[in-house]
Write a structure and sequence with these properties.
Mean pLDDT: 91
Strand content: under 5%
Largest sheet: none
Radius of gyration: 18 Å
Number of helices: 8
Structural class: mainly alpha
C-alpha cells in the first residue's frame, strides 16, 4: 500500500478509533475481554454485507439509491434503503454476538458491544466513501468524521441501551420494540436531512445546521443512556458486594 493510500485509510479509520476509545474509557471499571470487543467489530464488518442482501434487492425493485431528487424520495431512500436494512443487519449481528456471550453480565455491556458492531459497520462504510471521493477525500473524511461516524455511534448506543433493558428484564415487551425502532428512527431522520441537503437549492446551510442540532440532541440522549446504565450497574454491585 502506498503512503498516499495509507494516509487516506488512516483518515477514514481515525473517527471510529477515537469513538471506540471513548466507549472503552466509559467501561474502564469492569472492561470486556479484548477478544470479544474485536469479535464485535468483526461482526460489525459482517453486518455491512448482511445489509447489502436486503438493500440490494429493494434498490433494484424501486430504483437507484441515488434517486432522491425530492424530499419524499430522500425519505424513502433514508429509511427503506439505508436505515432499515442497516440497523436490522446490525441487530442481527449483535444478537449473534451476545446470544451465548457469558461476559454480557452488566447493563453497560449491551451498549459496549453494540458500539463495537456499529463502529465496525461505520469503519467499512467510511473507507468506501472516503476512497470513492477521489481528490475530495480529505473533505469527505472530515465531514463524515464529524457527522456520519458519530451518528453510527449514537445509533449503536440506542440499540445497545434497549437491548440491555430487554436482556435484564426491564419491561422487555415494550423495550423489545425500541431495540430496533429507536436506531431506525434516528438513522432515518439523520439520512433524510443529509440526503435532502444534497439536492436542495438554497437550503444547504439551514439543513446543515439542522443536521448538527439533531446530532447534538442524539449525543445528549446517548450520554444520558450511558449514565443510566452505569448507575444501574453500580446499584447492582452496591447491593451485591460479593457478586
Amino acid at each position: 500500500m502506498s503512503a498516499y493510500a495509507s494516509v487516506i485509510l488512516a483518515a477514514a479509520l481515525l473517527p471510529t478509533i477515537v469513538l471506540m476509545i471513548i466507549m472503552l474509557i466509559r467501561d474502564k471499571e469492569r472492561p470486556e475481554p479484548p477478544r470479544m470487543l474485536f469479535k464485535g467489530v468483526l461482526f460489525g464488518v459482517l453486518s455491512v454485507f448482511v445489509s447489502f442482501t436486503m438493500s440490494g434487492p429493494l434498490s433494484a425493485l424501486t430504483g437507484s439509491l441515488d434517486n432522491y431528487s425530492t424530499f419524499w424520495g430522500a425519505m424513502w431512500n433514508a429509511f427503506a434503503l439505508a436505515a432499515i436494512p442497516e440497523e436490522c443487519a446490525k441487530l442481527f449481528c449483535l444478537w449473534l454476538l451476545l446470544r451465548k456471550n457469558p461476559y454480557f453480565d452488566e447493563h453497560l455491556d449491551g451498549i459496549v458491544y453494540a458500539v463495537c458492531v456499529g463502529l465496525g459497520f461505520a469503519a467499512v462504510e467510511n473507507i468506501m466513501y472516503v476512497y470513492e471521493a477521489g481528490d475530495n477525500w480529505a473533505v469527505t473524511a472530515l465531514v463524515r468524521g464529524v457527522l456520519s461516524v458519530p451518528a453510527h455511534f449514537f445509533f449503536a448506543v440506542l440499540m445497545g441501551y434497549y437491548y440491555s433493558l430487554v436482556h435484564f428484564g426491564h419491561h422487555p415487551r415494550r423495550n423489545a420494540v425500541w431495540v430496533l425502532f429507536a436506531p431506525i428512527l434516528a438513522h432515518g431522520i439523520f439520512d433524510t436531512i443529509a440526503m435532502t441537503e444534497e439536492v436542495s437549492e438554497g437550503m444547504e446551510g439551514l439543513l446543515g445546521i439542522a443536521l448538527l442540532l439533531f446530532c447534538n440532541e442524539l449525543r445528549k440522549l446517548c450520554k444520558r443512556h450511558i449514565i443510566d446504565l452505569k448507575a444501574a450497574d453500580e446499584d447492582h454491585y452496591n447491593r451485591n458486594p460479593f457478586h
